[in-house]
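Help! Submission page says 'invalid entity' but I think these are all valid:
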Amino acid sequence: LKTPSKPAATSQLVLTERQPDCQPLTTPPKPKETPPADPWTPTSNLKMLISAASPEIRSREQRRQLSDSSSEVLQTKLCLQEHILGDEYEKSQPSRKEKSLGLLCHKFLARYPDYPSPSQKSYICLDEVTEELHVERRRIYDIVNVLESLHMVSRLARNRYVWHGRHNLPQTLQALKKVGEENKYIQQIQMIKKREYEHEFDPDGERNEEMASSFGSSEQSEMSFVELPGVEFRAASVNGRKYKSLRVMSQKFVMLFLVSTPQIVSLEVAAKILIGEDQLEDLDKSKFKTKIRRLYDIANVLSSLKLIKKVHVTEERGRKPAFKWTGPEVLPNTQDTKLEATSTACSPPISESIPSKEQCSKALFPSKGKQNFTRHSSLIKLVKSIENDRRKIQSAPTSPVKITASTYQSLPVFPNTIAQFPAITKHQLEGQSKTAEEMQMKCALSSPEAVPKPEPSQQPALSQPLGVCPASHSSVPPVILPHPQSGVSYAIYLHPSQAHTVTTYSPGFMLQPLPCANVTGIKSNNAKVLNKITTEEGDSQRGTEEPTKSLAAEERPNTKSETSSQRCLKRSQALPENNLIKRRKSDEESFDTSSAFFPSGYLIPLTHCTHGNKAECSSKEKAGVCSLQHTAYSSPITGVIPMPASELKTVNIPAFHITPLNIMLSPNSIAAAPVLSNSCLNSSSTSSAPNPSTSALNFMLQHIGLIPAGVQVPANPVLQHVPVSSQSENISHSSGSTNMQEGKPSAPKEPQEPQAVTENFFRTPGGPNTEPSLSVNSDGTQRISQGTLYIPQRKLEVSEN
DNA sequence: TCCTCCCGCCAAGCA
DNA sequence: TGCTTGGCGGGAGGA
């Protein structure tokens, strides 16, 4: 039965009308002799008319205070039928748009308060809803499933749901964001975009294989449902279908927004990620189309909830539908231990012995809060702490988008970022010839995913647009740690987010020499390449509308999250469900194994840094060291690696407490900060800034327990030669997240010296995303002048229509 | 022409 | 066994 279209004006009237009180009209019994397929028979026609016009009829009845006796109604209908014929009838039919799921969802939501009183539970009876909204049940399921994914409703029983409203939304979004980060969706997005571009030139390429390798084996990515305390998930079917459910898809879709910066996700990318996470064989076209369909369904509901808004992103490849997150900003999770999502996947847990920061901290400090969270596999991944750390010290290896420094500086949070930016990158640049720089850039861009293997000898290319040091680093100083064996010094970055996480002493901890990163702007031709595959977003959006997001973009760099071995480990972290005790036990067991893999130590040597060595990089790339996977997700900082316990032998760092900083520190809280190499340092002689003194170093090392009191670390020639820019003085900034002093690039005095070191590490003249230009001072030293800001974000043009 | 997504078939699984 | 739930994809309306 084809439904003729109806003019918007008429149908709009019908649709905007809400009939909260009116019971649906009862359709007169249909004469048996009426052929149901014929729309123009009086009876069938009448039926359709009733369906289409009943709101009007009812409102008319209300206005006239007519009785709703069926005979009168029928009369009215018949009367209406007389007048609405042919085209009129067609016009009376709601258009397709007006039957949309989004509109239906609006109606559905209008029935319930956003924030229902906790004492007054609203129950949803599907039968009632379908009757009152005049929709088939199937559509209600679509809505309810999405709402369920956000814990706005939960299933109570057959046909019956409880309405929670938006009470749980912040919590849910926070949990989803966390899971999304753990799942490294941002990296997957980057990978997909890269693949898209590559596929343009290699349509017959091994796309699926690449995708397969990108996402790992299908078993890696079991679908799981993130639950919240008190919102139990009771799917009607506990079968495998549950894991393909719209609920899970919806959650993952939301996750993509929450982890993306800007928070715009194209359907295509979302579908690919969902497919990639699902089954690799789903990569055929029909599956893709199906996913897209479902995403539209979900998007319609989310749009009704005003969580997302449809936009279009225009790329060189064309205009793509996308959605932009318009929901509440999800702040960083402050209750990690509470947000324990549980995998409800049907796949069996592989291992219970994977430690994680949460597990460690939970073991030590069991949360007093709600513990009803079910466990999500992705939350208990071995490399969690690695990823968190990486995310903060990496940036997306994407094409830069120019914005002016002034624009950038206008951002309210910019000063913080400036303060965080490692001045070391500047020095490194200073120490580089342009040729070397270009070579590095080419190298890094041609293989941006070149992830350094944890071999000390390796010299991974680091192509990192300036200014990607995460804001969260602003207040935590790196520790300069000499390594007597290798003669290499290291910077240890203490991650603030981990500062409060107390973990136990991890016995084997060695500072592993890592190649120094080369930090350069992106100038190679590949920048173009990357640009082409990127989505677009107006700079204005970044700069004015969502400044924090702009910065957050740099906090969520395009980092290769894990090697395949890590994925295996990650995969193996799936834990059994439903038993808190069991979980606790497994947590403990997992914790015991932490010595087998010590994921959070990121160390960058102060020596061994060479400037981008194109030849080396290229050869490694050819040799497969710089695999695609690695490239896309690798740390631009380079040399950020997890360290197996087997390599952690030399220096034991117990859990300790940095009194001056009031930071609880553990080995898991150690990450690397980019540090100049000797060569870098030697070649770069911007000398206006103070060097950290040996006494300061000793002070800090003693305080943090790296060396016993009384022991002095000899003056480190490397450190002494660290040139520190004084140009950062020009940058106003505010810190404040710790009790550290800030903004004194002048010669530090104890005990402020370590802070001064920090300052110097995280400052740069032009802010985090400045592409510096090298100039030569009168004394022959090189300096970086503030230049155009380069945002390692994709060029994005968004149109909302 | 392509995007969007309604619509309903039909299978899984529950009561 | 009937009903609920929901995956799925055809195909039509709309841009």
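Support: the input was valid. A stray whitespace character was the problem, and the output above is from the cleaned input. The first strand of chain A starts at residue 122 and ends at 125.
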